[in-house]
User: Fold BED-type domain-containing protein from Perkinsus olseni.
Amino acid sequence: MSASSSSGAFIDGGTENLISGDEADAVIHPLIPPTTRAAAQSSRTPAATCKTSAKKRAPSTVHSTSRKIRKLSSSAFATVKKGDGGPQMGQALDLVAYSLAGPKPNSKSKVWEDFSLVKRKSDNKIFDNIAACNHCLIVVSHIDANTSSMIRHECKHESSKPMKLTQFPGVLQPVSLPEEHRRTLVDGCVKLSAAIPGIGFATHRSEAMLEFIQMIIDVTTKVGRPWDAAKSIPSDTTISRKCKEVAA
Assistant:
């Protein structure tokens, strides 16, 4: 009986010790030698570490990619903003300093039917990171061959047809001026009417006047830079002599 009692006490004591542990490690410790126990703990640690590392790496990779994209976009826009970097983004192309260089070579995207690359006249440099609308001449981004800005562009020009050449080789079909420049023309017409006695208000839109003004615009575009009107417009003597030659 005493042996049985002591055996029962031993078993009860062992069972009590096994159950009393608060952690899983405390339950298995009495059954596992210390050396084996340390190896078991170390074998479980890398798995937890890997999971934690994976969770940390995922957002880090996303943030890193986002930073690279923002850096690329910022550098491209910064280049354009410099005085010698190219035309101003979102503004109408300055045809005095730049010209349309045609669609991107070897591109199969239909968006290039309405856009062209931009060429700087001073050194014939063609910018491959910007494009200009063929109709309203607004400059848009073309970073890394991305055409999303070109597709989103809403052309305010009344015609969506591609430009055609005028009677002057290299001069594109005229476009309508923005509202700001139209107001400037209105002010100019008022000054002209006030300065020349007897000129009618309808004279400015007469067929002969419109043809004359359009010719001046085409010549200016062909020259590619502003010209001095006082030194270029013929004198009254020259006009009189030419009229006599035509009449004869």
